[in-house]
Design goal:
This protein is of the alpha/beta class. Helices cover about 30% and strands about 30% of the residues. The chain has seven helices and 15 strands. The mean pLDDT is about 90.
Length: about 240
């Protein structure tokens, strides 16, 4: 499922985008989960997980460009498309690595072309490679194959699907969490990060991953982790 977030203060404009997304999904056989926020402040405070963001520029309070700048301080990867009636400002999207921009009123033909470009960026993000330096040398793997990361003394262990043993690196979980910014990882406790794309069940304090591994949420992180997983799975966790 592809998670789309629309940040747009005008309900009518948000509805147009949602209708375009639904049509595009039907035509291309995509499974989309579309969410809408009507202001940039909630976007910055809640930090919702998304695979692709459509951001209006001209919003009251915090405008889209400023919101995007703050987003990039902790998330350098999530593809971003500006949707605006201020075409003269849209070209400034390069400042925040925007994938593209659409000028209102957004016609479906233009949307469809630009959506295809945005999805290519989503695919590149999903296939992002990670490189870690272990005692046995450099290990390179796809971020999408990383199941979870946990601490082992003063080291961290990267547990990768298909690997018989984790890749162990002298590092901190805080550094790893920053490195994985923009990817669907959630902090379960002071000692573990999990890839939400591999979560198969959440029950009580337990999180079961696709390979059968069971991780535990700490009391301090449980509520935040449950909310993040539920949002990522479109309400399917529980």
């Amino acid at each position: 499922m592809l998670r789309i977030l629309i940040v747009e203060d005008t309900p009518e404009e948000a509805a147009v985008l949602q209708a375009h997304l639904e049509r595009y999904a039907t035509e291309h056989g995509l499974d989309l989960n579309v969410a809408w926020l009507n202001n940039a402040l909630d976007f910055l405070e809640d930090r919702p997980q998304a695979d692709l963001i459509f951001m209006d520029i001209d919003m009251p309070g915090i405008n889209g460009l400023d919101a995007a700048r703050q987003l990039r301080e902790h998330d350098a990867m999530t593809p971003l498309v500006f949707v605006t009636n201020l075409a003269q400002y849209a070209v400034r999207g390069y400042e925040v690595d925007a994938v593209d921009f659409m000028v209102k009123p957004v016609r479906y033909a233009d949307f469809s072309m630009r959506m295809a470009r945005a999805l290519r960026a989503v695919d590149r993000t999903a296939r992002r490679s990670l490189t870690v330096k272990t005692r046995d040398g450099l290990q390179i793997f796809s971020a999408s194959d990383l199941l979870f990361v946990d601490t082992q003394g003063h080291d961290v262990a990267y547990h990768v699907a298909g690997e018989r043993a984790p890749f162990v690196v002298r590092d901190s979980l805080r550094n790893v969490e920053a490195e994985l910014s923009g990817l669907p990882f959630v902090r379960l406790s002071s000692s573990a990060l999990a890839n939400m794309a591999h979560v198969r069940r959440v029950r009580g304090d337990e999180v079961t991953l696709s390979d059968g591994t069971v991780l535990f949420m700490s009391r301090a992180k449980k509520r935040e982790a449950q909310a993040a997983i539920a949002t990522y799975l479109g309400g399917g966790a529980g």
